[in-house]
Amino acid sequence: MENKLITEQLQPDFSSALYQVFEIEKKLKKLTTEHTIHRNVEKLKDYFQSLGWFYEIPKGTYNETRTDCDAHISSDSPEELVISEVIKPTIRYRENESSPSRIVRRATVIVESKGIQEEAREKISEKPSMIPSNMNICKFIKEQFSRLKLRFTGNDVSSK
User: Fold this and answer.
1) What are the residue boundaries of the structural domains of the chain, listed by start?
2) pLDDT tens track for 30-47
3) Would you give the DSSP letter of residue 89?
C-alpha cells in the first residue's frame, strides 16, 4: 500500500524504465565478450540517478523482516535463507542528496536455503550468449525503450 502512495506522488514514474535498464544489464552479464553497450547502460543509470531514481539489487541473507523485497521461497527449510535470484530490483527515489531515499517498488526475489544454492552453483555451467552481436543488443534496447515511449537523442533520454 505504501509503495502505491509513493508512486502516485511521483510524476513521472520511471519504475518501468528502470526495470528495463535492469533487464538489459542482467542480459549483458550473460555475454561471453565485453561489449561497448555497458557504457550506454551506465549512462542511462546516471541519467535516472540525476533525476533521483535508482535501483538496488538485494543480496545476501533473507529474513521475513526485510522491507525492501517480496520473496518467493523455493526451499522447505526456513534456516539460512539467501537470495538466489533477483527478478526485479528495488526501485528507490531520492528528492535531493541530503534526503533519505524512499522505496517506490519492492524487489521481487527468489530465496533458497544456503545449502541448496551452493549445490545448484556446482551443477550450473556457463552457456554461450544467445545474443550474437552488438546490433541485436541495440535493436533490443530500442524496442524496450520505444515500448516505454522514451526517445534517445545524443546522450540524452527524454519522454515522447
Assistant:
1) 6-123
2) 887 777 888 889 999 999
3) P
Burial class, 17, CB count within 10 angstroms (exposed 0-12 / middle 13-18 / buried 19+)? buried
Q: Which residues, 6 or more positions from 19, have their beta carbon under 8 angstroms from its beta carbon?
A: 55, 88, 89, 91
Phi/psi of residue 117, nearest 5 degrees: -65, -40
Q: Which three cell numbers stand for residue 49?
A: 540517478
pTM of the model: 0.64
Task: Return the C-alpha cell found at 71.
Answer: 520473496
Residue 109 CA to residue 88 CA, distance in Å, equals: 7
Name the residue among 72, 51, 55 with its Cα closest to residue 19: 55
Assess whether pLDDT exceeds 80 at residue 127: no
Residue matched to cell numbers 541495440: 138
Convert 69-97 to b/e letters by CB count within 10 Å (16 or more is b). bebeeebeeeeebbbbebebbbbbbeeee
